[in-house]
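Running this now, will post back.
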Amino acid sequence: MDDAVCTVVWFHHHKPGKGGAYMRIKAKNITTGQIVEKNLRATEKVLQAIVERNTMQYLYLDGEFLIFMNNEDFTQISVSKEQVGDKIDYLIEGNDVDLLMYGSDVLDLELPAKITMNVSEAEPGVKGNTVSGGMKKVKLETGLVLDVPLFIEEGENIIVDTRTREYISRAD
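Update: finished.
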């Protein structure tokens, strides 16, 4: 819209008693994050952006940039920490993630719904300490702090929901 790549976050078809029908939309500008409200008449056209999903391997953090490698042609791409946001808590070196790209610009990073992570620090679970619901805080390999059941110990692998940031289960 207005020569910017946007994603539609809300829409409503409106047919007034008088006049022609139109669509009310809210669109988020991918590059700036700004949300714009607009009315589109039935005769107006909007170009669809071709967004590619590329599976890439997360290699390492280089200052303020994360370095990813394309698994097919081995080219590397850097993405700013700011653009990744709190998804950085789930990036483990060597794991594959999907980057949504428009041309050579990275629009977003998609994580799997569940990911296996290693517990790097855990306080010992004290038997009988169920006042807090039988949960304790642990630190995962990326620095993410999470509430887990008392039986989880340091060095164990657990499955975490990347959408809700919650413990799901022990990994096999």
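The chain has a mean pLDDT of 88. More later if anyone needs it.
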